């Protein structure tokens, strides 16, 4: 096993602590399997009435998956990343359907895979330090871990804006977009966890939840909903530029720096997620998309530019949106071979939300 996830119990709670603080608690395959093992053991353990997940260190819950490992795997044409995603997405579904309260402390940085192990939980707590994002388009990838499902459910076109730009949001905006449920000041988290060890989740929340500091997105709903309702990424950018709103023009500039292929695939992913049904069907779609991205030059190039060499100068292929055809996008959604598909059981429609 690995000490990268600390597993234990405190009173009535099972505790999961992601323990790679120097790597911002980035998820490895072994960590995903360890979390799944613990949740499976606690599911039928009457001594564990709730689960709490948090991150070690002061910087955040989790910055995502180990993208250096993904970069190496993609360069070498390996299958390790696909194997990792298969188990990671299974874990996301397990968390979403967990029969006991699953409390996620989304303090600090919560991005990519960090959203996957938190934002599908029963009780999702943000603080004044929270920065929540799905920033995948910046590395030539597409939001996954159920991110397209969550963003598709956000009010209006807020989710489309966040998916395409990769913008990180604070507590109030995470609450507005449905990525979190409650605000608790960071200074109260230790006491919150102590109380959860001996008191019901409902009673603990009543004692600790407060009002989140003001956000930014609500004031921008007008231009966001209008511009991102367009049918294509090209039209979205045209509307942003033509809006006359400085923040919209900044969003357009942000989009032009992202992978053109990733932008088009992301827009299609979010739009399709709205009609696919439960989370499980969206995760299955995301698995196809992720496996296709693994063979795309943009994923290797994006990670190189942002993480490996850090020159922040990716050379996308194709370099422009006009070079990305409908056929290029469709490739990402093509069914895999039968033995490679991710197949998740359908949820029980009668399952009650744990409290």
Automatic annotation (TrEMBL):
A Gene Ontology biological process term: L-valine catabolic process
Gene Ontology MF terms in the entry: 3-hydroxyisobutyryl-CoA hydrolase activity
CDD domains reported in the protein's UniProt record: crotonase-like (cd06558)
Recorded coiled-coil stretches: none
Entry keyword Ion transport: no
Catalyzed reaction equations: 3-hydroxy-2-methylpropanoyl-CoA + H2O = 3-hydroxy-2-methylpropanoate + CoA + H(+)
Gene Ontology cellular component terms for the protein in this record: cytosol
Domain Enoyl-CoA hydratase/isomerase as annotated: residue spans: 14-333
EC top class named in words: hydrolase
Xref: SUPFAM superfamilies: ClpP/crotonase
Protein name according to UniProt: 3-hydroxyisobutyryl-CoA hydrolase
Record NCBIfam families: PRK05617.1
UniProt keywords, alphabetically: Hydrolase
Pfam families: ECH_2
Record-linked InterPro entries: ClpP/crotonase-like_dom_sf, ECH_dom, HIBYL-CoA-H
EC number: 3.1.2.4
């Amino acid at each position: 096993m690995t000490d990268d996830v600390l597993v234990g119990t405190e009173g009535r709670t099972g505790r999961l602590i992601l323990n790679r603080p120097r790597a911002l608690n980035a998820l490895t395959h072994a960590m995903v399997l360890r979390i799944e093992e613990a949740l499976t053991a606690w599911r039928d353990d009457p001594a564990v009435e709730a689960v709490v997940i948090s991150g070690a260190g002061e910087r955040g819950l989790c910055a995502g998956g180990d993208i250096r490992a993904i970069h190496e795997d993609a360069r070498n044409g390996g299958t390790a990343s696909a194997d990792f995603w298969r188990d990671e997405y299974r874990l996301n579904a397990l968390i979403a359907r967990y029969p006991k309260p699953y409390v996620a402390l989304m303090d600090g940085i919560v991005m990519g895979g960090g959203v996957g192990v938190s934002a599908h939980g029963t009780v999702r707590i943000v603080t004044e330090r929270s920065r929540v994002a799905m920033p995948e388009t910046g590395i030539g990838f597409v939001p996954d871990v159920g991110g397209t499902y969550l963003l598709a459910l956000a009010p209006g076109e807020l989710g489309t804006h966040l998916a395409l730009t990769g913008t990180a949001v604070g507590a109030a905006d995470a609450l507005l977009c449905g990525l979190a449920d409650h605000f608790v000041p960071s200074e109260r988290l230790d006491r919150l966890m102590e109380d959860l060890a001996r008191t019901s989740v409902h009673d603990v929340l009543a004692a600790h939840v407060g009002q989140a500091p003001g956000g930014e997105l609500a004031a921008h709903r007008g231009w966001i909903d209008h511009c991102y309702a367009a049918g294509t990424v090209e039209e979205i950018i045209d509307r942003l530029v033509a809006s006359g709103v400085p923040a919209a023009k900044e969003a357009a500039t942000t989009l032009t720096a992202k992978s053109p292929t990733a932008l088009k695939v992301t827009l299609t992913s979010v739009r399709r997620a709205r009609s696919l049904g439960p989370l499980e069907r969206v995760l299955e779609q995301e698995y196809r998309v992720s496996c296709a991205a693994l063979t795309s030059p943009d994923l290797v190039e994006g990670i190189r530019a942002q993480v490996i060499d850090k020159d922040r100068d990716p050379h996308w292929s194709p370099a422009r949106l006009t070079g990305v055809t409908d056929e290029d996008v469709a490739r990402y959604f093509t069914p895999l071979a039968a033995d490679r598909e991710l197949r998740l059981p359908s949820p029980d429609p009668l399952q009650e939300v744990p409290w």
